[in-house]
Amino acid sequence: ALEEASYTLGASRWRSFRTIIWPLIRPGIANAFLLAVIESLADFANPILLGGDFDVLATSIYLAIIGRYDEVLAASLGIVLLSITLTTFIVQRYWIGKKSYVTVTGKPSRYSALPIPKGLDYGLVGFSLVWVVLTIVLYGSVFAGGFVRLWGINNSFTLLHYKRFLVDGFESYITTIKLAAISAPLTAAVGLLIAYLVSRYRFFAKRPFEFTSMLSFAIPGTVVGIGYVMSFNTAPLVFTGTAAILIICFIFRNMPVGIRSGMAALQQI
Question: What are the structural domains, with CATH classification, of the chain?
Answer without folding.
Answer: 1-114 (no CATH), 159-269 (1.10.3720.10)
